[in-house]
Amino acid sequence: MEIAIVLTLLVIAVVLFATEKLSVELVTLLILIILAGLRIISPEEAFAGFSSDFIIIIASIFILSAALEETGILDFAVVRLVRLAKQSNNLMLLTIMLITGVVSAFMNNTTVTAMFITPLVGLSKRINLSASKLLMPLAYAAILGGTCTLIGTSTNVAVSGYIAKAGLEPIGLFEISGIGFIIFVVGMIYMMTIGQRMLPSHADQELAEEYKLQKYVTEVVVLPDSPLVGQLVFASDLTTLNLRMLNVIRSKENFLPDFRTRIRANDILLVEGDVDTLMKVKETKGIQIMADALISEDLETENIRLAEIMITRQSNLINRTIKEVEFLRRFGLVVLAVSRHGETLRSKIGSITLHMGDVLLVQGAPERFEQVRNSNHIAVLDEFEPVLFKKKKGLIVIISFALAILAGTLQLLPLSIAFLSAAVVSILLRAISTEKAYNAIDWRLLILIGGMTAFGSAMENSGAADFLAQGIVDVMEPIGGRTGILAGFVILTVLLTQPMSNAAAALVVIPVALRAAMELGADPRSFAIAIMLGASVSLVTPFEPACILVYSPGKYRFLDFIKIGSPLTLLLVVVILVMVPMIWPM
């Protein structure tokens, strides 16, 4: 009975993670409550994952990554190194992937990707190269670079913590560096050759044309006898028709209205709405429609500009609607459209719930863009403006980071204490503020990892791990022996990472794989390391957070990731199945 309950909860979790009907952390906590309520796990087991040292390691890495970003040292490195590579696109791409991979070996890959997107989009515009030629290689390099060390990705840290809890030796800081380096090099060669040829190239377009605003925006002239005269722009009769006010042209001056602006006679209002609504507006008394199509010059003037901004990983706008966050009042920018996963959203802008990686087409005064450029919540995707390089504080963070790695490698301190010390030093010496340090931590990820660790205990306690392990052994052993069984687990992990996060998928499969390895008399650590690496090389779809971040800025289609990522994933799975048994004999 308990096996059926645990497996049913697993299926429900996979479906909810995939559909995002509920946030991942809420799903995780609900599963913990059910498992503990049914006494499949004890309260101690339910919350043991949250008190593990690997949670401290992951949180500390987030803080150190944010401190490096805050000091501007990464921007400084990008500017210097990319300048050297500008003599050829191939050399530039190789340099970008090398930089990203090296940095990602010691930082969370999603964080690394997020930090490099804005510089690369700005660079692509300066050299007239489609951003799609740079951003997918960036994301893949960040993901694969994370396989080179224990701290390169939260999945590695979580798996190491789980197997240590199971009584096995935890993974060393550089134990996987050899195979990680091979995986990274294979991925880089693939992207420099086969992958580069398949990368899409998008012709540069005016933003208004690219988002097809002409079909949805028109000019309305307010006649002297119009009842609109004297009404507030954002509370006028036109807004009751589901029209959105964009600009006001008054006496040849084009400006953005605010909440106090009143309509005057002969004003020209730039309004946005669906086609049916715009047709109804033509019948409204006291106005005259100037044009059914709009030229982009009306949306961009000397005092008003269009730009794209991206919702960042740590943004507090995520899972909130544009209306809820009062976007115009807060940032002084008007949202005209939202690009998400290759789809442009233009209808009912205010009710659109924002997601990480969404790209918003916005309109505003140039000074407004300067004010929000250093925001933690949105990133302006235009000309790259490096953060002021704070050399002294940057060196403090680098030295603290390096000493933590050294102390952990030589086992002078436990890894958790070493990295926590480095994070605390960065805060004490004001390389990053306490508030920014808290905001830098991905609490959703920590809850997910802590909760799925407890789910692994539930699979063991209920017998679900034994049940699944025996099933996989019975099916795969006649086909390929131990290697075939290992292949079955790695492929299962790759498949589960599509609806689930990499760490969650690995933590679900690991208990089953450890049981299977014990039944076969094989080394459980070999299975655990192969599954951990399999979770990190799953590039079939763009559901990995690093890929989600580059999806919209790169103007990719879903098929682009499948076409380029599937062969690479298959190639890397083969590398894992060949190399792991050689390095960690089964």
From TrEMBL:
Keyword vocabulary terms for this entry: Membrane, Repeat, Transmembrane, Transmembrane helix, Transport
Xref: SUPFAM superfamilies: TrkA C-terminal domain-like
GO biological process, any: potassium ion transport
Subcellular location: Membrane
Transmembrane segments: 54-79, 91-117, 138-159, 171-192, 416-433, 445-465, 485-514, 526-552, 564-584
Topology within the bilayer: Multi-pass membrane protein
Molecular function terms from GO: monoatomic cation transmembrane transporter activity
One cellular-component annotation, GO: plasma membrane
Positions of the RCK C-terminal domain: 205-287, 294-378
Pfam families per UniProt: CitMHS, TrkA_C
Domain of life: Bacteria
Protein's UniProt name: Di/tricarboxylate transporter
